[in-house]
Design a protein that fits this description.
By secondary structure, the chain is α+β, with helices and mostly antiparallel strands. It has nine helices and 33 strands. Helices cover 13% and strands 28% of the residues. Helix 4 (188-201) packs across helix 5.
Length: 621
């Protein structure tokens, strides 16, 4: 937005903090994709609200205190699709004038995704991200469809009241040749910085997003190019950079960034640091493929996973590595280091692996030496992530605890929580918008997904790994909720699909189960009263987990007596926990150096025993 206007008479409701001290710690001295990845790490922590919450928040983030208004008391929204800079607007909206559709301009506004929903299948957290979901005229929004924001030329299909247009694309170096929406000059920088924000905030997911929406580049309405780092079609990126520089950050954008931060707890880095656009996209790749990594080896094997390691490529411009299984690339798997665990494999099955490096020009090397491995027939680990606690409390007191007992670090980017609702009109059950997990979960880690409006005092928003008011965290106990992989492959469930469940106002803690279950089995769960949340997110027995060889636990699996060696003469007692972190039993030791524990009465399953500060996993037969 070119016009920079500052009014000193802001109401208290719109005074927001500036960039918090230390928010961008760790970015000093970085450039290129290293800076992009660090900023991604910083801004990925946010509170994700429900799509239905956005209109109320627009009353905080998007009121028009600029240009022809300038009053702290108006309740008019600023719509970058219809605003007429420097002149009275042809029409205006208040927060209450949300509408689903419109046949003409001026009827009402929509919640507009600057990056279309089709890019990410309407998944949360993208679906309700205030940094790029803004209020715009409903008619313009409909006609814009999922066309890119770009420079138009040639045929003009629509000209709107503020002179923004839908035209044929005329962006230099951009292979797309369909229709585009071109905003007025005063808001081109605003749009560019929203799109650039998207590329950084969702860097770890970009390769799985829809970047081939058409039947070829000329018809591909997505602006993404399928890479996590560069993100865009080259010609399109140059256009974004041009819009960013020609329409600098305005007071309105800065204040909106502060307002969104107060609600969502993350920031648009290109409003705070405009120079980072050129600094991040400054890489100059060469035309030579990188050297291949070497020394590929298998370092661990389980029933459902194989861990690989290799010697990195010697080339300095290597961005990462692609892993191949039986000659085929593993989809959406990019490794930045020199080790990876390939999971979700079939037990007792032979596989062959190879690895290629790729560089800043996205050129791949030759393959490494192949290595083969056969997964174990069985092991003591869970075959996938598990829901270990499910809290449906009073009000918004909803939380889901998920445990990684797979025996290795897990990439969460392909997992999502989803929920079924009932349509009383047609009598059908349907899945609503899913919430995508992201980042990684360490081996043995237990984490919590929490509704931001929850008020129970045993676990705060700050402690939760994910804070979201998305549909899956609005359950009332009547819905079926599942943890899924890659959209719709069921991993673990709470409730029964396609039916009315009676799980309201209770807390469910997983017991006597060491594997996820795609069918809900009430016998695996202990019921507790409303708002019970003891030990939520604190499967602390997994902390300092010691391997069996180090621990001297034997026998393992065990039927009656479990022996522990070298746990210290001062150890007077031990605690046994189930996989959900629930304390099962506390036992006292005699003074002998080799200590034994009677576990004969425990049901079969996987447990942890904690002695002093050490925890050991064992299987009860």
């Amino acid at each position: 937005m070119k016009k920079i206007v500052f009014f000193a008479c802001f109401a208290p409701a719109v005074l927001f903090a500036q960039v918090p001290a230390g928010y961008y710690n760790g970015t000093a001295g970085l450039s290129g994709y290293a800076l992009k990845s660090k900023v991604h790490e910083i801004i990925s922590r946010n509170y994700n609200w429900n799509y239905a919450d956005l209109p109320a928040y627009y009353g905080i983030t998007d009121l028009d205190r600029y240009d022809d208004h300038g009053s702290a008391n108006n309740d008019i929204l600023l719509d970058i699709y219809s605003e007429i800079p420097g002149a009275p607007d042809a029409y205006e909206y208040t927060v209450s004038q949300l509408t689903g559709s419109a046949s003409t301009e001026g009827v009402g506004y929509n919640r507009e995704h600057i990056i279309p929903q089709s890019t990410f299948d309407s998944y949360y957290p993208m679906y309700s991200d205030l940094h790029f979901v803004v209020p715009t005229d409903a008619r313009i929004n409909q006609l814009r469809s999922n066309y890119p924001h770009a420079v138009g030329g040639g045929s003009t299909f629509y000209t709107f009241t503020n002179t923004s247009k839908i035209r044929s694309d005329n962006t230099l170096g951009y292979a797309y040749s369909g229709r585009v929406y071109e905003p007025v000059d005063e808001y081109k920088g605003d749009v560019a910085r929203m799109i650039l924000y998207f590329a950084v905030r969702y860097e770890s997911k970009l390769r799985s997003f829809n970047y081939l929406a058409g039947s070829g580049p000329a018809n591909d309405t997505s602006v993404l190019n399928g890479t996590a780092e560069y993100a865009f079609d080259p010609g399109y990126l140059e256009m974004l950079k041009m819009w960013h520089s020609s329409d600098p950050v305005s007071t309105r954008e800065t204040e909106r960034n502060n307002a969104v931060y107060s609600i969502q707890k993350n920031r648009n880095p290109f409003i705070d640091n405009p120079g980072w656009v050129d600094l991040i996209w400054s890489e100059t790749p060469d035309a030579l493929p990188p050297q291949a990594p070497s020394g590929l080896a298998v370092t661990a094997t389980g029933a459902h996973f194989v861990t690989l390691t290799w010697t990195p490529s010697a080339d300095a411009d290597v961005l990462g590595y692609h892993v191949y299984i039986n000659g085929n690339p593993i989809p959406f798997t990019t490794v930045k280091g020199n080790t990876v665990t390939v999971d979700r494999l079939t037990p007792d099955t032979a596989y062959t692996f190879t690895v290629r490096s790729f560089d800043k020009g996205y050129l791949e090397s030759a393959v490494t030496n192949p290595v083969s491995a056969t997964t174990l027939y069985s092991d003591s680990y869970a075959k996938d992530l598990m829901i270990t606690k499910f809290i449906d409390g009073s009000g918004f007191n909803n939380a889901v605890e998920i445990s990684n007992n797979k025996g290795h670090e897990v990439n969460l980017n392909n997992y999502n929580l989803r929920i079924q609702f009932y349509n009383s009109v047609n009598g059908n059950y349907y899945f609503s918008e899913s919430f995508q997990l992201e980042g990684k979960a360490a081996a043995g880690e237990t984490f919590v997904v929490r509704n931001p409006r929850a008020t129970f005092n045993c676990y705060s928003n700050e402690q939760a790994k994910f804070v979201t008011a998305s549909d899956p965290l609005t359950f009332t106990g009547t819905q079926y909720v599942e943890l899924a992989y890659k959209g719709n492959t069921t991993v673990d469930v709470v409730g029964t699909k396609d039916t009315f469940n009676s799980l309201g106002d209770i807390s469910l803690y997983r017991q006597y189960a060491n594997q996820p279950n795609t069918l809900f089995n009430p016998a695996e769960w202990q019921n507790y009263p409303t708002d019970y949340c003891q030990n939520l997110g604190t499967l602390t027995v997994a902390d300092n987990l010691v391997t069996n060889s180090e621990a001297g636990i034997y026998p393992n699996p065990v039927r009656d007596l479990l022996y522990l060696r070298d746990v210290g003469d001062k150890a007077t007692h031990a605690q046994i926990f189930d996989l959900s972190g629930r304390l099962i039993r506390t036992l006292k030791f005699s003074n002998q150096k080799e200590k034994s524990v009677d576990v004969s009465e425990l049901p079969s399953g996987v447990y942890f025993i904690r002695v002093n500060t050490k925890s050991f996993r064992f299987i009860k037969q």
